[in-house]
Each structure stands twice: as C-alpha cells, then as structure tokens.
Write a structure and sequence with these properties.
Helices cover about 45% and strands about 15% of the residues. The chain has 24 helices and 22 strands.
C-alpha cells in the first residue's frame, strides 16, 4: 500500500471519527432543545388561595384580538414598538367566573398600565364589574393617579383609593386631525381625490388645510354622544349630581389653585374618589379580609392571567357540545389576502367564516366587528361568506365593538341582526380613491417625462405624469359605482330602499345610539346579547356553548407567547426597552396615517375607510407625575 493510500485511509478514519462526534453532539443539542420545549410547555396549573382577591391589571390597549403574531409582538415591544395589549374577553371572563367563585372575595383593579381604549370596551367591563358587585362582593381600586380612561373603570368600583400625591385628570373628549394640504403644495405633489359621500372626510387631510364644515357638524354629534355617555356612566356609578364632571373640568384651574395645587385633595372634595390612601395602606387593610401572603407580606391575591389558567384548565376535558355558537372576530383594518391577527384579511377572515359554515356543530355565528374599514374588495369577500352562512341556514348576528364603520359596516350589513354599543362608531357609508402624482415635483428638480403609448390611456396611471380628464372620469365613475353597490348591499341587508339608505349614508359617522334610531343597527347591547340572539335564532335554547373560531397557533408561537411576558419583564429590568420620546408621541398621528395609507392594498384602489378614531383619553405624562 502506497503513501497516498495510507494518507487517504488515515484522513478517512479521522473524518469518520469527527462525523461521529458531530452526530453525537447534534443529538445532545436536540435533546437539550427538546427538554427546553417540554419545560416551557409544562406549566403547572396555578393554585387559587381559599380566600383571595382577584387582581385585574390590564396593560396597554383593550382589544378584541391581539395584533400580529406572538413573534412580532415580542420583538416589537422589546424594541420599543407597539404597547402591550389586553384581550377584552379575558377581563370579562375573569370577572364573570369570579362572581360565583367562593374563593374570590373581591376584585382589586390596578389600572396604572391601562392605555386609551374604546369607550364601548370600557362599558362592557363596567357592566361586568357592576354584575360582580351585585352579588355583594367588593371592587376596590388603588391608584397612584388616574387619567380619563382609567377613571372610567375606577368609577365602577365601590371604593376608589387615590395616593395623597396623585391626581385624577379629566379633560373631556376632542377630535383633532392633521391637515397636510399646505405641506403637499410646497412639495408640488398633486393628490387626486375621488370620493362619494358628502361626509366622507378621510381624504380631507390631503385636500384641505382645516376641518370641513360637514365633518365638524357630524363629529360634534358623535363626540357629544360619547361624552354624554361617559359622564352619565361615571356620575351614576359615583352617585354624583348631573354635570359634576363638566363642572369639575370647567373650573379645574381655579379650584386647584384654591387647594394650593393639591390635586388629590380636590378629587376627594369633588367626590371622584373614596379616600386618599397609598397602595400599601390599602393592601394592609385588605389583609384583614382575605389574609396575608407570607411571601409578599401583602394580601392574598391571584393575578388575572393565573386565575384564567386555573378556571380554563377545568374545562379542557369537557366534552364538546354538538350545538354551539361560533364567534369570529374581525378586528383591525380590512386588507386583501391573508392577514395576521389584529388585521382583517379578505381571504383569511372569509376562511374562518367558511370554517364555521362547514362545521356541523356550529349552528349560528356571531361576527364581532371592531374595524374602521379598508379595502372594498376584501370587504366584499367577507360579505359573501356572511351571505353563504345564511343560505346554509346558519344565522349570523353582528356584534359591534368600538368601531364598525365604512368597510366595517359593509361586512355587517348582510347579518340577520346587528347589535352595537350606544357608543360604537358606525355608518360612514362611502367610498374613496386617492392617486398622488409627482410630475410638478420632478419638474422643479429639472426632470422631464416624455414618451409614447399605444392607446390614449397608456401611461396615464404613472405617478410621474398628471392624470388626464379621461382617467379622472374613469376613476370618479368607478367610485360612484362602488358607492351605489355599497348602498345596495346595505339596502338588501337592512331591507330599506336604496334612496332611504343614501339619506343616512353619504359617509356620515353615527354613534350606536343614533344608528339604532335610523335603522342601521337593530339593538343596543354587548357580545353576550348578540350571542344570546344568535342562539335564539338557531333555536339552541339558553344553555349553549360558545366557541371562538380563529387561526390555530403553531408550537413556536405557543412557546413564544408563554415566554413573552418573562422576556419583556427582564428586558425592562435591564433597561433594554427605551422609553418613547415626546417627539415620537407628537408625531404619532402623522405616522399612524402614513402607516394606514401604506397598508391599503385594494386591487382596484377603492376603499371604504373611516378616520373616525375615538378620542384618546390618556395623559400619561401628567397622570404619572
């Protein structure tokens, strides 16, 4: 055997040894990863003390569906992105279960991390809290400070304790938008707007420098409806005279000066809070009611997430009913194709409705809508599935949350019945299309565009050329046709002549209480009322099961959801999550509009979208002084 053969044999042996080591190490690594997965998946069922307070501490915004997927949420938040979110149904489910749970003696609300949320969602939690108190159990709030959103829920409690250094900040509702026309003119951009509907004001931000009289008129109506509901709910809960909140705001400056700037004292004087106590003082008092936790030296408590895990574990082995009401959540903007949770996809949401249609155990469907609209094509896809459900003999009831406007109303119109909160923002039946062109901007830079086309329309939709009269006519005619189709869909669903629908359409936004009066909504009520109505239409009786029909999470997503809160907590402790600057907060409205425009993807460029954002009700900087 030659030297070459010997070397090949030697290196071959070395390679086989190294390959064997690699495989062993690979196997060990896989076993380690598998063990980590098992450890992450193995979560013991939380123990609820025999006597405890249920602590409900919502974080971020109250939502109908958590936005995006767990991966994006975790990384987004870790990089200072979107705020945390709390599922509305988690809060109401926990309160409802605690009502009849003998172990839960009271609820403690910790509202310090709650951000601005839709009034209709706050009202649903408020109703659940009042129901909880109706069986003789207490609801207590301990707060450092309270802004307007937080105070609404605090007012529903029997006892509101405010830190002596805190404040309650109320300022009423407002609706302001940024108008970009002057900036656009300076940039020499032509924003070509085509719309149908006198009150369809979404595109005014490009074509005006101020609020149009028509938008000012309609906005004042729904703003007053929401503010009136807020005041009524709070004054009733706190047993305050009518007008107490308006009076508190109107003379707040002088009244605060009279108490030498002591905002907590002023809140107590006006009856907004029960007493001035620190969180520690409140905790010490609660020990006498539910006992002391030896580890924390505070009162015995169970967090909402732990409590939900405990009560839900009891239902894991429960046999599935052969007759149930399916709930499909349609939350967020309406876009074409498949979209992640927190956004409504024409394809993805239609698939969920189709799944309900072919599931023999689902006898009726509740479509829970929380959307300002979006793509008209995607809205039509979803509407068709609602119609198919009805043709299959399965009733569909819509339950409107904070918004069900424009495209959000489009997908609702074909339902058997529509339920809305008195403060839901709905209607906005109108259509628009926006085509920006930049030829004047380019000309200022010395850039000329020239060429030829094979037809009179060839090249007309280039963004570096002005729109011709023919193209303008085509676009406006398309928008008018889309508006007529919108009216027809509403007329068919609501059993109204198109002419009558047109009178209450025109892009006008209505509060739920007014929408019921004019026939856009059948009943005022929450999700439970809608589910009861769906069960009644399907003749299921009063004892029926409810099943949320939603995309299943992958194993990776399940793991990340479990690890998310711990990861974020550690990142916050380590200072890895930077605070958002004041300038970022000021620019939020502009950035939000820009992001909304960038997401719109209707294949024909036709949109049923409403910029009817509920007024923000937080002032974190002042409330957390």
């Amino acid at each position: 055997m030659g030297l070459g053969s010997a070397l090949r044999g030697f290196f071959g042996l070395v390679w086989r040894i190294l390959e064997g080591i690699r495989r062993v190490l690979h196997l060990v690594l896989l076993l380690v990863i598998f063990g980590f997965i098992l450890a992450a998946l193995h979560t013991s069922i939380p123990t609820v003390p025999r006597s405890a307070a249920l602590v409900i501490a919502p974080q971020g915004e109250l939502v109908e569906q958590l936005s995006s997927d767990p991966v994006r949420r975790a990384f987004g938040q870790a990089s200072g992105g979107p705020a945390p979110e709390t599922l509305l149904r988690d809060v109401t489910e926990a309160i409802a279960a605690a009502k009849s749970d003998e172990r839960i003696k009271l609820i403690v609300l910790d509202l310090g991390e709650l951000d601005s949320s839709g009034l209709s969602k706050l009202q649903e939690i408020g109703a659940a809290l009042r129901d909880f108190r109706g069986v003789g159990k207490r609801v207590v709030v301990g707060a450092d400070s309270l802004d307007q959103t937080q105070y609404y829920l605090a007012a529903q409690a029997g006892e509101v304790y405010l830190d002596p250094m805190g404040l309650v900040y109320l300022d009423g509702f407002s609706y302001y938008r940024m108008y970009l026309k002057d900036a656009i003119d300076k940039l020499a951009v032509d924003v070509n707007v085509f719309r149908a509907g006198t009150y369809k004001s979404y595109t005014d931000q490009y074509s005006r420098s101020d609020m149009a009289p028509s938008e000012r008129e309609e906005s004042s109506v729904w703003l007053e409806a929401l503010w009136s509901a807020y005041q009524q709910d709070v004054t009733r809960a706190r047993s305050l005279p009518a007008g107490a909140l308006a009076g508190f705001i109107a003379d707040q400056a002088a009244a605060l000066q009279a108490v030498n700037g002591d905002a907590a004292k002023l809140a107590l004087q006006r009856g907004l809070v029960t007493a001035l106590k620190s969180r520690r003082q409140m905790a010490d008092e609660l020990k006498g009611l539910v006992g002391e936790d030896e580890d924390t030296h505070s009162f015995n408590a169970v967090a909402m997430t732990q409590y939900l895990a405990s009560i839900r574990s009891k239902h894991v082995l429960k046999s599935k009913s052969e007759a149930k009401v399916g709930i499909v959540v349609a939350a967020g903007e309406i876009l074409d194709g498949h979209q992640p949770p927190g956004t409504i996809g024409g394809e993805s949401t239609a698939e969920l409705l189709r799944e309900a249609r072919y599931d023999n155990t689902v006898k009726a469907v509740v479509l829970r809508v929380d959307s300002p609209g979006g793509s008209m094509f995607a809205s039509e896809q979803i509407l068709r599935e609602v119609q198919s459900l009805r043709k299959a003999g399965k009733p569909v009831v819509v339950s409107m949350s904070t918004y069900a406007a424009s495209g959000g109303y489009y997908i609702s119109a074909a339902a058997n019945q529509i339920f809305a909160s008195p403060t839901t923002l709905t209607g906005s039946i109108g259509v628009f299309s926006v085509v920006p062109t930049f030829q004047r901007t380019l000309e200022k830079l010395g850039v000329k565009v020239d060429g030829i086309g094979t037809t009179p329309l060839a090249g007309d939709m280039r963004m570096d050329r002005p729109l011709t009269p023919a193209t303008r006519q085509i676009l406006q005619t398309s928008v008018d046709h889309a508006y007529a189709e919108f009216l027809r869909r509403v007329g068919d669903g609501r059993k109204k002549p198109v002419e009558d629908v047109d009178k209450i359409a025109q892009g006008r936004v209505w509060a739920g209480v007014d929408a019921q009066r004019i026939g856009l909504v059948d009943h005022l009520g929450g999700l439970k009322d809608a589910a009861d109505a769906a069960a009644k239409l399907a003749e299921l009786g009063s004892d029926y099961d409810v099943d949320y029909i939603e995309p299943e999470l992958s194993l990776r997503q399940e793991l990340l959801m479990q690890l998310r809160s711990e990861t974020l907590h550690m990142a916050q402790i380590a200072g890895l999550i930077p605070p958002r600057s004041d300038i970022e907060k000021v620019l939020d409205p502009v950035l939000e509009q820009a992001r909304a425009i960038a997401r719109l993807n209707d294949p024909r460029g036709l949109y049923a979208y409403c910029w009817c954002r509920e007024p923000r009700m937080t002032l974190k900087g002042l409330a957390r002084r």
